[in-house]
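hey all, quick one before standup. I had two proteins in the batch that finished overnight and I want to keep them in one place so we stop losing track of which output belongs to which input. First protein below, input sequence then structure tokens straight from the run.
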Amino acid sequence: MVIHRDPDIQKNAAETIWRLLEEPANLPLFAKKEYMESILELTDSEYPAVQIVGLSVLEKITTLQEGAMIFFGIHGVQNIGQVNSLLCIFIAV
């Protein structure tokens, strides 16, 4: 669902994941490379709302050590650095 072409579906799916991650017991379920790669793709969306939700999900997942290790392994830091620059501009406006 997260890799769907419709940005509304992407945002809603990511928000659902974010809500699931409010329960700490669910964090390990999403700390998997394939999940994190698809969520990381959301941070490259042309829609700031999708980017923000994607970043929020990644933030929760990376609170786990294994989530952080996967994040660094898929070069998430480089992608997030580019997105954060854009988000700072968006939030300032």
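OK second protein, same deal, sequence then tokens:
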Amino acid sequence: MKIKSAKPEYLEAAKHISEDIAEQLLSRINDKLYKKLKNKDLSTEEVIGIQLEIEEAQLVEWRTKVAEIRKKEEKKKNKVNDS
């Protein structure tokens, strides 16, 4: 994954996050982001913004997968009921 800067809306959201939520987000960052933070290449706010963006993309992907699974389960259920 190439590390880029966060979109402005995620940077803005990062500014308004509580310390507890920021700590939770920082606990989930990957090694590349951690190194950028440690080396002062990115600010804490920038790293949080990037992490928010990553997690949003992962959530969208997860929701898509779950919808596909539910659709398959519904087809199986209908197939069994039709038999």
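Flagging for whoever picks this up: The chain has a mean pLDDT of 92. The CA atoms of residues 39 and 70 lie 44 Å apart.
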